[in-house]
Amino acid sequence: MPKNVALFENEGSRLRELARDPNVLIIFTKHAQDRMRERSVSRIDIQSILKRCSVVKFEESRWEETWRAEGKDRDGRVLQVEVVPYERELEIKIITVITPMQR
Amino acid sequence: MTRGHGNTIRETMPVHEEDLIGLPYPVIIRDAAVCEKDADTGEILSYAIPDLDGFVAAVAMVRALMPVKLSQEEVRFMRKVLDLPAKKIAEYLAIDPSTYSRWENGRQTAGELVERMFRHHVCAELKGRVPAIDFEPSMINKMKIKPVWPEGDKPQILLTRIVFKDGATRRKSNQWDAGAIAA
User: Fold this and answer.
1) DSSP secondary structure, B100-123, as one string
2) Residue-range domain boundaries for chain A
């Protein structure tokens, strides 16, 4: 688990709760889908990771906050997923998917 | 058409070929998948499938009820829909984890009894997530499983959203249901 995970414990807990909500809508950007095809990552893998993730990075841009979530899929593969959480609307936008070798 | 985030609009797609759930063939979604477009240019920026959990559960159930031997990719897909590690599935099937691993990796095929048990487990576990799809254990018991698809064929799975009325509670909800399926 990353060393700075405690810094974003609150965000991690909120993201896991959002991902576990049965009414959540997970929106995948075209860019994220392209990366997923390249890396053989499925929508199920992303959803599974988000339900158990830690948030390891937080960025605030002019328009939106992006959180980087890290977790393992059901095959034990570690992936990072950059997301924009919309807690009020019960939505999560997947911006991109990063494999550890890219770090 | 509804507003999305920022300067975007959302539209329900009449037909969407879904190829990002880990299966080696696309699943057709009719009148349910959503795309988000730039409101000015019309460029598609993102896609979403409502009730993703229910959708993948419906795909897994529909395939588990088709009487053709499961491929390694389909077995792995179903395990992931169940959200279980390989070891847990091996435990349920009372087989050695390495045997299950060889099944999922395509180095060994499962015996018919094990495959029927796997299909039963998948459908029993997922039935609650897809109430609109009919399932009785006898459907699998009576199934005559063919070894392969006829040459050139592949599974055709078509799903759509319906308003489902629960017989016990009388409550209505949007659920996934199977459309015309051709084997």
Assistant:
1) HHHHHTTSSPPPHHHHHHHHHHHH
2) 3-102
B138-150 per-position pLDDT tens digit: 999 999 999 888 8
How far is it, in rounded angstroms, from Cα A67 to Cα A58?
A: 5
* Binary contact (A48, B80; C-beta < 8 A): yes
Q: How close, in Å, is residue A103 to chain B by CA atoms? A: 24
Sequence-ordered alpha helix ranges (H) in A1-103 = 9-20, 30-38, 43-51
Question: Quick check: is B133 in a domain?
Answer: yes
Crossing angle between the packed helical segments B112-126 and B72-82, to the nearest 10 degrees: 30
Find residues 45-84 of chain B whose CB sits inside 8 Å of chain A. 45-53, 56, 77, 79-81, 83-84
Question: Which of A103, A12, A101, A100 lies closest to A56, judged by CA?
Answer: A12
Question: Domain with B126 in it: what CATH number?
Answer: 1.10.260
Question: In the structure, what pLDDT confidence band is assigned to residue B157 with cuts at 50, 70 and 90?
Answer: very high
Which of B9, B38, B41, B52 to mutate against chain A (most A CBs within 10 Å)? B52
Contact, B180 vs B158, CB < 8 A? yes
Q: What's the domain range around B143?
A: 51-178
Predicted TM-score (pTM) of this structure = 0.92
Number of domains in chain B: 1
Assigned domain for B112 exists:
yes
pLDDT tens readout for residues A11-68: 999 999 999 999 999 999 999 999 999 999 999 999 999 999 999 998 887 778 999 9
As for the ipTM of the complex, it is 0.90
Q: How far apart are CA B57 and CA B131, in angstroms?
A: 10
- CATH code assigned to A3-102: 3.30.2310
